Predict the 3D structure of the following.
Amino acid sequence: MVPLSQVILLSQFALLEQLVLLLQKVRLLQKVLLLQKVLLLQLVLLPKKVLLPKKVLLLQMVLLLQMFLLNLLQIVLLLQMVLLLRMVLLLQLVLLLQKV
């Protein structure tokens, strides 16, 4: 039978791996958001003759909506990271209590 401490350590390692993956997703989301901000700025600075004002407005609205949704997704990922960290800490607490 595998000792509980070994199971806890393996669980912590798996949780930390998930945490790293979530962090990578958050960083990627931040890059996408930055690119969308640049696109939005370019749309604002676009000469009026290139696109009809209604199309520019529609594109701006779509970009803003995408940015809003990506920010929500980023918040969800950060909350998942917090939950994973809590799980790691709880496992660490169980490991410490087991030694007592």
